[in-house]
Amino acid sequence: MVGARQVAQSMPPKFFRAHEIKQLFESFDFSSFTNIRNYALVHLAYSLGLRPDEISLITLDDISFTQSELTLTARKNDCPDKLPLPENTIKAIAAYIVGARPKSSYRRLFLNLVAPYRPISAGSVCQHITECIRKAGLPGSAYWLRHTYAQNLLEAGSSVYEIKEMMGHITINSSEKYLNIHIKLIRRVILNEEL
């Protein structure tokens, strides 16, 4: 007898808790150009939930310091977007541009720090962020920061539609998986706890 077809259950996204984010940011020392650049990379991944490829494609022209805004021209959903830049993220980007970014004719924001100075790839962004997470003594990867961003939006009361827009998802189905990780809501409903 043949049974029903088994469909693999996808695991809910993994994310960092507040104390782990604090640990990550406190682990940075700014004694090298690499650390200054990586600090800006981590800020963009955490504060805007950007994918590594989106971070790698940011140009100097995409950043408006006066309006505290980032224009994303290349998103997975092919829809350009303007996102607000939090103050700490603006400061991290400015510190990198002024203190660590090599002089180059390339307009991409993030460059390799070894000559010839070329734009870094999405794979390098992912690798650098993951290395920062590991140096902070945390498990996880660059995508955990993206998931943390979604979790923070959800806990702040954002709707699934708003999360879809902020995350740059093509369909709302992509955003629904983040409902599985709303830990505080789950504890309040199932355990009747107020947090």
Write the layout of secondary structure elements.
Elements (H helix, E strand, L loop, with lengths): L17 H9 L6 H16 L3 H5 L6 E2 L4 E4 L8 E4 L2 H13 L22 H14 L6 H14 L4 H8 L4 H5 L6 H9 L4
Antiparallel strand pairs: 1-2, 2-3
Could you list some keywords that capture this structure?
three-stranded antiparallel beta sheet; hpI Integrase, Chain A; mainly alpha; 5% strand
General form:
globular
Structural class: mainly alpha
Q: Poorly predicted ranges (pLDDT <50, ≥5 residues)?
A: 4-9
Report the β-strand fraction as a percent range.
5-15%
> What is the typical, i.e. mean, pLDDT?
84
**What is the CATH top level name?**
Mainly Alpha
Our count of helices gives: 9
Query: Would you list the SSEs in sequence order as H and E?
Result: HHHEEEHHHHHH
- The CATH superfamily name is Intergrase catalytic core
Widest beta sheet: strand line-up: 1-2-3
Give the total of beta strands: 3
Overview of the structural elements:
With 195 residues, this protein is mostly helical. The protein has 9 helices and 3 strands; from the N terminus they run αααβββαααααα. A hairpin with a 4-residue loop joins strand 1 and strand 2 (69-72). The protein has one domain: hpI Integrase, Chain A, CATH 1.10.443. It is globular, with a radius of gyration of 18 Å. Strands 1-2-3 form a 3-stranded antiparallel sheet, with no helix packed on it. Helices cover 48% and strands 5% of the residues.
